[in-house]
């Protein structure tokens, strides 16, 4: 098992659902086998937290700070652009489906924003980044989708080797330094991504997309638990852990990330 795989496993275990379900299961074991009330002190807070994190009115407050840190891309503020970097995200490899149907929601949102900006700057290159999953590269799927939507192949650059955002920034640095670069990623992820690129000497222009926007739901829906709110809470936790990981790595090896 590689360090990258270990990091991903540990990160997944630290998400809200695994933590809360573990608390509930341990609590139930105490209740049914130990016959004491200690289990209630695990079960009740876990159930309450799970309900709260599933409420749009609560989760929107968590995610909105990160999502609103950067404004959407505005062409009026940027006369020239050399590169549009679209960071990789979720893919669902399936050989019998077209490339666009193998992209997850966040991948599609990022690619669409990248293509939108590419149409505004006809001489800018579109850089599609993303690692291989089950021998299927997300950057290749992004490229195939972009080609099918009409972008010329000479405008596309792929970066299929990077496993995470830190590696994406490192591997692309030699090409992007001193260039005008728009960085496309999910709004909740933008702050951490921009920081990692800045560490490599690339001062990017933020182009956030893939907003949760839970506050736009009907007022009565704000108080009904749903999976989208829980997904937003998971994204928030993912970014927190990612930021802590960066801080820890920089403490013992400032040049590593």
Automatic annotation (TrEMBL):
One of the protein's GO biological processes: peptidoglycan metabolic process
Keywords linked to the UniProt accession: Membrane, Transmembrane, Transmembrane helix
Sequence ranges assigned to domain DUF218 in this UniProt record: 83-242
A GO cellular-component term linked to this record: plasma membrane
PANTHER family: ENVELOPE BIOGENESIS FACTOR ELYC, INNER MEMBRANE PROTEIN, PROBABLE PERMEASE
Protein name as catalogued: Uncharacterized SAM-binding protein YcdF, DUF218 family
Stretches of the chain forming a coiled coil according to its record: none
UniProt superkingdom: Bacteria
One Pfam family in the UniProt entry: DUF218
Transmembrane segments annotated in the record for this chain: 12-33, 40-59
Keyword Membrane: yes
